[in-house]
Amino acid sequence: MNALMSADVIVRDARLPEDSHLSRVVNSELARIGATSIPAAQLRTGEGRFERALRETKLKRGGAVIAEFKRASPSLGAFAAGRDFMEQLGAYREGGAAAVSILAEPLLFQGSADEVLAARDFGMPRLYKGFVLSEQHLDEAALIAQADAVLLIARVLGPHTAAFAEAARARGLEPLVELHDFSEIPFAQESGATLVGVNARDLASFAIGHPSVAPLRDAFPDAVLIRESGLTNPEDAVASFKEGFDAVLIGEALMRSDDPALFLRACVQ
């Protein structure tokens, strides 16, 4: 396994706009992970639970939902600070979520690796959703969070995406490579990603767009394609499945919903 570039080099190469929300989060994580002592995770073989759950649910129900627990964001602030973690995860399980995504960034998203671990009690495969910049992030995802999968953001990692995907797999983590621009497709292809997400939210401005699935399916004919962000109701999820996405990731709308289980059941018709 090749050595990973330092987080400082990755941030430099990303050339993120200094005044963007993404830059704020990345700089916050750079400072946090550099000041945190995390033991190196042992190399291990992953079980493929996350991808398998999405594929099996897609076959059974026509689409799969990754339900996200997120209290806050840089653009919205603390919009769901009062949500009870255990109740929300219980509703996700009751509603038939194929998998869950748990925010691990503490300052701007109010998440933690400990909550990724706590979600294990609900039995659904878990995605460590953070802003991975270093081996320490991967070790946190594997050792502290004991996650099944880890988010790798191509906008941040760029040409280093493949090396991080390899390092994730060596720790038993399934890499979900997230794109926010189709120009980033080669980074995901080089990584050998079989879980590919497209974020409808511009990671600099946090404005919402409407990504097309066709270029992704051409580039990744056998991958699980995931639509992320901008899904405000179950009809949006249904439409995404009809367009050709295999799965959707829904966070804010579920966190705001009075009945997350009912919301999830309505996503698959």
Helix content: 40-55%
Sheet with most strands: strand arrangement: 1-2-3-4-5-6-7-8
Name the CATH homologous superfamily.
Aldolase class I
CATH architecture: Alpha-Beta Barrel
C-alpha termini separation? 44 Å
How much strand? 5-15%
Number-wise, the strands total 8
Describe it:
The chain is an alpha/beta fold and 269 residues long. The protein has 13 helices and eight strands. An eight-stranded parallel beta barrel has the order 1-2-3-4-5-6-7-8, surrounded by five helices. Helix 5 (113-118) links the parallel strand 2 (99-103) and strand 3 (126-129).
Q: Which labels suit this protein?
A:
single chain, 269 residues, alpha/beta, TIM Barrel, 13 helices
Question: Topology, please?
Answer:
Elements: H1 7-14, H2 21-34, H3 49-61, E1 64-69, H4 85-95, E2 99-103, H5 113-118, E3 126-129, H6 135-144, E4 149-153, H7 154-157, H8 161-170, E5 174-179, H9 185-191, E6 195-199, H10 214-219, E7 224-228, H11 234-243, E8 247-250, H12 252-256, H13 260-267
Quick structural summary:
With 269 residues, this protein is an alpha/beta fold.
